[in-house]
Amino acid sequence: MTKIAVWCRHKDDCIIGIGPKIPWNIPSDLKRFRRITEKANITCGQTTYESFPNRTLPNRQIYVLTFDQNYEVSDKQNHHVVTDVMWLKEFEEPLYIAGGASIYKLFMQKMAPEVIVDSCNHNEIDKSLSGSPVDIKECIEKMEKDYVKISPNYEEDNVTTTIWVKKGEFVDQAILKHITNAIIN
Length: 185
Prior knowledge:
Elements: E1 3-10, E2 15-18, H1 27-37, E3 41-45, H2 46-51, E4 61-65, E5 79-82, H3 85-89, E6 95-97, H4 101-110, E7 115-121, E8 133-135, H5 137-146, E9 147-149, E10 154-156, E11 159-166, H6 173-184
Helix pairs in contact: 1-6
């Protein structure tokens, strides 16, 4: 299985959220995420899952990581509860990791993704949101240490996106082509 982490972080401080909210509204970032993950298997935590409009993303299988074995998903045919992250280690198809911070950190520590789609937002954070900042600094440190950047910087709406691959890993070229096409189109 190829694991692909997809995130958008604030450039200066690696913040991806304030409380449960994304502290910016950049439609092109959301469109890029949708293009990258369309028709794919994605995994996310319960809070991220609950932030999806109508608790779904069309044309995707969603695996919700949660400690709650009785957690109710909104679409039992296409959404699945996973209580043991190691079950995903044996997953045979490409798996896109969609956050939040605790899920990114878990995957980076336990089974590092082969590919990271790193989007850096250079815009201002919405300061009107209340809650604690949520960052992925340790994920970025690991990425910069254990991964190599294999793409140019793709810029749209003051968000720079790059593709990183884990050093020494072979990655299916069809996956890289799909990600690249989703970013530039």
